[in-house]
Amino acid sequence: MDYPILYSFKRCPYAMRARMALQLANIKCEIREVRLNNKPDHMIEVSPKGTVPVLIMKDKIIDESIEIINWVISKVDIFKGNLEQHENDLTDELISIFDNKFKYHLDRYKYSTRYKDANLEFHRNECHKILKYLENLISDKNCFFGEKLNKLDISILPFIRQYRIANEKWFDSLKDILKVQKCLNNFLESKLFIEIMHSYKVWEEGSDLDYFPAKKL
Ligand SMILES: N[C@@H](CCC(=O)N[C@@H](CS)C(=O)NCC(=O)O)C(=O)O
Questions:
Q1: pLDDT-derived band of residue 214, with 50, 70 and 90 as boundaries?
Q2: What is the average pLDDT across 68-85?
Q3: Cβ of 14 less than 6 Å from ligand 1
Q4: What b/e readout covers 29-56, taking b as 16+ CB neighbours within 10 angstroms?
Q5: pLDDT of residue 216
Q6: Tens digit of pLDDT for each residue in 78-110?
Q7: pLDDT at 217 over 80
Q8: Are β-strands 61-62 and 211-212 bridged in parallel, bridged antiparallel, or unpaired?
Q9: CB of residue 64 inside a 6 A radius of ligand 1
Q10: Does 50 sit in the ligand 1 pocket, CB within 6 Å?
Q11: What is the model's pLDDT at position 215?
């Protein structure tokens, strides 16, 4: 095994955050783009819970996106920032809110027809409340804690992006989350984000190898 293997799915926000951490650290992987409705047997063998991302190394397998980010940070100091203790605490608190509450309501807002009895406006509003809470905690700069990207940015912006996509016009018209909108726009236009959204063909047993990052930053 020359490089770690990364099972990934382009549009998955959890896989996006893992790809961003790996890209920032310039850790080269063999990337295997999957279809969620037809996951490779090998991926299920190594991680029976069947979610992406999965990072397979010689000596360990990591199948939780935040753990992949933490592993990358333990190898390469990708964020180089000295966040204040309260910002580190906030990072953990907010990632947990987004992975649980925000994601729950986002799914019911975005895919309201898939959930019996889901009220689109209620779930949209619950997400909006979380974004207003975030708005009060962040800087008015290009990133949540100033001008530099941090763990919080790469971890939650992929979910905020999905929230916006559900109704871009409505999201862009909001006047009470201006700082969040600014950070999101900055993120969407960033080289990092554009690079990690490179399209790979779907991997199958026997496919030619594909590598990530597609290009070095
Ligand atoms: N807690 C996991 C969640 C990952 C996750 O749920 N990924 C979704 C795609 S966005 C998935 O693989 N779902 C499995 C499926 O849809 O079958 C992580 O942070 O890595």
A1: confident
A2: 94
A3: yes
A4: bbbbbbeeeebbeebeeebeeebbbbbb
A5: 56
A6: 999 789 999 999 999 999 999 999 999 999 999
A7: no
A8: unpaired
A9: yes
A10: yes
A11: 65
List, for residues 8-55, the tens digit of each pLDDT value. 999 999 999 999 999 999 999 999 999 999 999 999 999 999 999 999
Q: Distance from CA of residue 90 to its chain's centroid?
A: 17
Q: Is the pTM of this model over 0.85?
A: yes
Q: How far is the CA of 51 from the centre of ligand 1 (A)?
A: 4
Domains by residue range for the chain, with CATH: 5-78+197-212 (3.40.30.10), 85-193 (1.20.1050.10)
